């Protein structure tokens, strides 16, 4: 994996670029036990949000947000163009569609909460958030957390284009954080928060009830969903053991197994 010259900061927040620079036992994006607990807490928080949304929707109390799709477009800036061109060069059609949908869901969920957002940063992070899985990569998911590598890859590319390093830091940290399950807007900014929410919405449907059906249908017509599981390489044993990708896949498989076991009649039933 490509490396920067900066030394890792002690106690860097899970998922940030500096956190990904740790050495030793928990290098390359491998989680400590407290970090695994943190991921579980984050997922529980997202599940609670979804339960609330479902309940409010059933009661007719949720005000879904919608707007004209044209009004959600990113600004025409050098950063947006360079991020898009890089994504378009290395990502296949399915990854690009996923990235666009993630951006739109993020913008719409942010609109539902009336969050102020830097569209330039959010778009660059969204269109590149899975670049660690794209072609031309020099690190495989079994060797390093693909999000840690993707954040580094994105940062290197944008630095080479001469963009503002502070803004690049926001983009790359948002990418690195998005696999945490939940990202605080207060701690990490609206863009990192919404990137995570947008990705969760596209992969798991979380938060979709906050978005009007008409705009959801329009986005899915323009950027249809394919075999997302394959494109995101959600395969058991494919990711480095102990990384967020591996941990989340194992959790999903355990949940599926538990569900299957619960549906099988037991002796005496």
Note the main attributes of this structure.
269 residues; mainly alpha
Helix content: 55-70%
Largest sheet: none
Q: Please state the structural category.
A: mainly alpha
The total count of helices amounts to: 11
User: In terms of per-residue confidence, which ranges show pLDDT below 50 for 5 or more consecutive residues?
Assistant: 1-6, 263-269
Radius of gyration, Cα only, in angstroms? 19 Å
Structure description:
This protein is an all-alpha fold. 56% of the residues lie in helices and 0% in strands. The protein contains eleven helices and no strands. Helix 3 packs across helix 8. The N and C termini lie far apart (54 Å). The protein is globular, with a radius of gyration of 19 Å.
List the helices and strands and how they pair.
Elements: H1 33-58, H2 78-90, H3 93-112, H4 119-128, H5 146-160, H6 165-177, H7 185-188, H8 190-204, H9 213-222, H10 228-231, H11 244-263
Question: What is this entry, summarized?
Answer:
By secondary structure, this protein is mainly α. The chain is built from 11 helices and no strands. The termini are far apart.
